[in-house]
Each structure stands twice: as C-alpha cells, then as structure tokens.
Automatic annotation (TrEMBL):
Gene: ydjH_1
Record-stated family: Belongs to the carbohydrate kinase PfkB family.
Protein name in UniProt: Adenosine kinase
InterPro entries referenced in this protein's UniProt entry, alphabetically: Carb_kinase_PfkB-like, Carboh/pur_kinase_PfkB_CS, PfkB_dom, Ribokinase-like
Entry keyword annotation includes Transmembrane helix: no
Keyword annotations of the record: Kinase, Transferase
Length: 327
C-alpha cells in the first residue's frame, strides 16, 4: 500500500462549546474562519476559557488528516515542529499511538502551538490559532530523507505564510517522486495569499481539496464552475459542498458524492480534514474516485457528531466495516 506524509502546524485544540456567538465578536474572530493570533490575544481567550468547560484534543489540519488515515491502517508520517512541553508531548504521543512516523522538530524558544476552538450553537467552528513553535519550521530544516519511502505529501493551506518552506518541501517531495496534495484550509487564508495559492496549484500540486467558500475565494465562482477551473490546473480537484456532499473531477471524469445524512451536527471541527483522510486512504488502496469520495463522506459524517476529532476505537471498527460494503 502507498504511504502518505503530512506537513503541517503541530497544534493542540482547546475546544469550547458556546451558548451564543457573542465572544467571537468580542475577540474579533470571523465566524467559521481560522485567524492567527498573538500571545496577547491567546491570554485574553484563555481568560474567557477559564470560565468555560473546555476539551483538549490533538489538532492541526494535516495532523487530523494523517491520524484519520493511520486509524484506517494507512502507512503515515508527519513533519512539524513542537516544544517539549505538555502540549508538544500530547501531540507527539497521539501520533505515535496511531502508528505514524513522527518527524517532529523541536523549538526551545516558543511553546507548542494551540488552536483555541469555538463551537457555535449551530456546530460551526471558529479558530483563534497561536502557532508558537509550529511557526518556526524553516526550509533549511527539511531534508530529502524525510520524504523518501512515501507516495504522497499532504500539505495544509494554513502553512502558506511560509512560502520558502512550502516550496522547499514540494521541491524535496518531487525529487523523491511524491505526488503533492493541498488542502486549501480556510477561505480567508486563500483570499489573503491568492497569488501564492495560484502558483502552487498551477505549477506543483497534483490533488486539491477545497470547500465551496475556499473554491470561491480561489476562483470567484460557484462550486461547479470552480471545480472545472481547478481541475484544469491539477490532476484531481475536489470541491466539498457541505451537506450536499462533494464534487470530484479528474480529467474528463466527474463524480458527485452525497454526504452521509447526520441527525445532529455537534462540531464541524475536522470535517474537511477527515474527508481528505478518507479520500486519500482510498487512493492509497487504488480505489475508484467515487469510492474514495464515499470513504471521505463516511469519515467527515462521523467526526461532525463529536466534539473535537477523536473517535472511539469501536467507531473506527464500524467505519472499516462500512468501507468494505461500499460498491
């Protein structure tokens, strides 16, 4: 089976369920977005969290996707940067527990990254992300050896502020013969660095994941047209359209996959990451685009029914049974 390595911000999620969206306005966090914050704002958020019930989970977009694939039995690795503090150790142990080869570099200057995660009453999540040690991963720390033995590199769009590091990672991955997958991550990130995203997708990326807001920020178009535009730039384009499922295009082949019906959305954290996990797991198994999309739909449907991105082992066993039953 093909192996896949993720490159991303090594983050721990601190999640809080909100009674109203008032705190988002107070903290100047646009609902549904990921906003990078400094240490001062993190302290203000922590003060608010001290009066609320919070839940700790391993996070980071690429980290979530890699853990999902590892749970399904895929061969996985992860490159990121942490501090040897309690959050960093929590993140490392989570990767190793699921069999992922953890290539975690260590910062001794900044603490490990934290994503303060606000879950609105409708299940939508909003992130205030303090990158900390994760932001100190530099191009010169990457080596060709890190990428050898893998077939795919999965990059989260949240990393694009580090242009040199991303380009170096892609250069090394291509030299090692890997295909490059990019998850666009958040509409405001795409809009804020549009030119660089265009360069990546046009020149380097083989597989693109975007939700409809990200696809619109990138192309200015609605999902069907956006899919057409992105698919002309890369090998496989996926545009996720929430409860309506996903659109997938490879060359002239186009597939629409329905979302798995869910009675109650608890928390959308990790929905896109888990879709990517399921889809890429399917690719490593050599499945059809439709089956890959259906596995993605199963995983994303499950993770939105829990707070955070941790599913119990019994749930993973059920997911594996469901995958076997897909035509």
């Amino acid at each position: 089976m093909d192996k896949i390595i993720g490159l991303g911000n090594a983050l721990v999620d601190v999640l809080a369920t909100l009674d109203s969206d008032e705190i988002l306005t107070k903290m100047d966090l646009p609902k549904g977005s990921m906003t990078l914050i400094d240490e001062d704002k993190l302290l203000k958020i922590n003060e608010e969290f001290s009066r609320m019930k919070t839940h700790l989970a391993t996070g980071g977009s690429a980290g979530n996707a890699i853990r999902g694939m590892a749970q399904l039995g895929a061969g996985t690795g992860f490159i990121g940067k942490i501090n040897n503090d309690s959050y960093g150790n929590f993140f490392r142990e989570s990767l190793l527990k699921h069999g992922t080869e953890a290539d975690l570099l260590v910062s001794d200057t900044l603490p490990s990254g934290v994503a303060s995660t606000f879950i609105s009453p409708d299940g939508e999540r909003t992130f205030g992300t303090y990158l900390g040690a994760a932001s100190t991963l530099k191009a010169e720390e990457l080596s060709l050896e890190m990428f050898k033995g893998y077939t795919y590199l999965f990059i989260e769009g949240y990393l694009v502020q580090e242009h040199d590091m991303i380009l170096r990672a892609i250069e090394l991955a291509k030299e090692a013969g890997l295909q490059v997958c990019l998850d666009m991550a958040s509409y405001n990130i795409v809009a804020g660095d549009h030119e660089f995203f265009s360069l990546l997708v046009n020149k380097y990326v083989d597989i693109v994941f975007a939700n409809e807001e990200e696809a619109k920020a990138f192309t200015g178009k609605e999902p069907e047209e956006a899919l057409d535009i992105i698919a002309k730039m890369c090998s496989i384009a996926i545009v996720k359209v929430g409860a309506r499922g996903s659109l997938i295009r490879k060359g002239t082949e186009e597939v629409r996959v329905e979302a798995v019906p869910v009675a109650k959305v608890v928390d959308t954290t990790g929905a896109g990451d888990f879709f990517a996990a399921g889809f890429l797991y399917g690719l490593t198994c050599g499945y059809s685009l439709e089956k890959c999309g259906k596995i993605g739909a199963i995983l994303s449907g499950e993770v939105i029914q829990v707070i955070g991105t941790e599913l119990p082992d019994s749930k993973w066993e059920k997911i594996k049974e469901d995958i076997i039953m897909i035509n």
